[in-house]
């Protein structure tokens, strides 16, 4: 089981990835 700090770090990476995908979408249009 993950501790809360690992969970937070994972969430931050997840949101960073979403951010990158969103900005890539904007660049394509």
Compact description:
The chain is mainly alpha-helical and 29 residues long. The chain is built from 1 helix and no strands. 86% of the residues lie in helices and 0% in strands.
Net shape: rod-shaped
**Helicity level, as a percent range?**
over 70%
* End-to-end gap: 41 Å
Rg, nearest Å? 13 Å
> How does the helix and strand content classify structurally?
mainly alpha
Strand content: under 5%
- Mean pLDDT score, rounded? 89
State the helix count.
1
Give me the strand/helix succession. Answer: H
Largest sheet: none
- The poorly predicted ranges are none
Number of strands: 0
Topology overview:
Elements: H1 4-28
How would you describe this structure to a colleague?
This protein has 29 residues and is mostly helical. The chain is built from 1 helix and no strands. It has one helix spanning 4-28.
Structural descriptors:
1 helix; 86% helix; mainly alpha
